[in-house]
Each structure stands twice: as C-alpha cells, then as structure tokens.
Write a structure and sequence with these properties.
The chain has 6 helices and 2 strands. It is mainly α and 148 residues long.
Length: 148
C-alpha cells in the first residue's frame, strides 16, 4: 500500500508516519521504480502498536524499547515489566498534579460567584496576583503545578 493508504488504514497523518520512519520506529519501506514508498501489513501492524503506546502517553523512547522487545520474541520480558511499572509511576504523579491543578482552578472560580465588571472580577484579580507573585498557584493554598 502507498503512504496515503497506510495513513487511512491507521488513522495517522502522513507526516507522523514519516516522523516515525525518521525516528527509526518504523522500518523504511521498499520503493517502486517510481520511488513511491510501498508499505506492507507489517508496517500497519507496527504503526498501530506505536499509536496505541503513544495513546497511553508513552514516550518515543519507551515505545522504542517496547518495539525492540517485540522484535526479539525470545527475550525475557522483565525489562518490559520494569518499563511499564516506571510509566505507571509517571502517570500516577501526573494524576496527582492534575488533581492539584483542579483544586487551584476551583479555588480561583470561587473568587467570582456572580457576574461583575471585569475590573471587579475575582478570577482576573486572582490571576493577576499570582502572576505578580511569580507563582503558578492561586487561592489560599499555594501549590506547585506540573512543570513549575
């Protein structure tokens, strides 16, 4: 199949497919005499796995490791287990950070319970205060937000 057909079959933009090829996640396809890429079912299968791993928020590095193990079916999978355990830890931390972010946003929303003019808006005032303080938080509880 040509790249457009692979793109449709995997619901993946063509540029993403080319990116995965450049990154070495997808093997280079054979080419026709007219220099068109020709993909096989194995490319589709691999691309679908990459896309699924990415939907699980796995990094390209993690996907690369998983694909190496997939390519060596006789290898022990202890490192795969360790990789997934580590990823679960990252996801748990991100969930915790998102919960704190939600609390901050709820606290901020409580600052303006009714419609007012913009100059009296509690939300805008809270955002301005936090910006002036150089913090990434608003409300009575000052907490760090992911990445800050």
């Amino acid at each position: 199949m040509k790249i457009g057909e692979l793109s449709s079959a995997a619901s993946t933009p063509i540029e993403t497919i080319r990116f995965y090829e450049r990154e070495g996640l997808l093997p280079a396809p054979a080419r026709t005499s007219g220099n068109f890429r020709i993909y096989e079912a194995a490319h589709l299968d691999r691309l679908q796995m990459i896309r699924y791993c990415r939907s699980l928020d796995m990094s390209l590095g993690e996907v690369r490791v998983l694909l190496r193990f997939r390519d060596e079916p006789a290898a022990a999978c202890g490192d795969v287990n360790a990789l997934l355990d580590e990823h679960i830890g990252h996801v748990s931390k991100r969930i915790e950070e998102l919960r704190l972010l939600e609390e901050q946003l709820v606290d901020l929303r409580r600052r303006c319970d009714d419609e007012r003019t913009a100059q009296h808006c509690g939300i805008l005032a809270g955002l301005n205060e936090a910006a002036q303080e150089g913090t990434t938080t608003v409300g009575p509880k000052r907490r760090a937000v992911h990445g800050h």
